[in-house]
Amino acid sequence: MARLIELIGELTLTPSFRPYESLVMSIISQQLSAKAALTIKTRVKAIIPAITPEDVLATDEEAIRQCGVSYPKIRYIRDLSTKVLSGEVMLDQLQDVDNAELLKQLTSVKGIGVWTAEMFLLFTLGRPDILSLGDAGLQRAARWLHVLPERQDKNYLGVAAEGWAPYRSFASLYLWRAIDTGLVDSGLPVEACEKPLQA
Fold first, then answer.
1. How many whole angstroms from its chain centre is CA 86?
2. Does residue 135 carry a catalytic annotation?
3. Active site residue: 79, 96, 98, 135, which one?
4. pLDDT in tens, 112-137
5. SS3 (DSSP) at 139
6. Helix (H) or strand (E) holding 22
7. Could you say which EC number(s) this protein's record lists (predicted)?
């Protein structure tokens, strides 16, 4: 990992100040290309300028549907909104909720799975010690980084990440960047790699 950090350079996490809006946009973006998701999110923001649970619930479902949001996703967003307002999902006191409890709360919302919840903790909240064992890209990059033999359970992260706590989110950022810059697919061990151009 030290060699990978040397190759890539400094990476940082920047928390968002709009956690509810980030979750809504994550739900909208599911299973869509980046371009399609951006178009739909822009339309939604045009009819709901302040993305709050109250404003979302007050907006006519058909108006949201006309933006390109599917009916199932509208149901997921409304379920999230209701649970935020009832306090079942505590987005107002995030500093008081640990990772395990917040994952439990988030995955109680229809349409939010473990991976989406983990990405929220990592990218939106900037929590430093999140590791997504269900992320196939991270598993592949961890296998490359540590030159691990084939495993039946495919859990290369579980083997590699023991020493990364309490900064596993940052380790994840470096593994994703190793994929994006072509290091993982280079066919070379990390020790033999040169600094990628787009690092």
1. 24
2. yes
3. 135
4. 999 999 999 999 999 999 999 999 99
5. helix
6. helix 19-29
7. 3.2.2.21
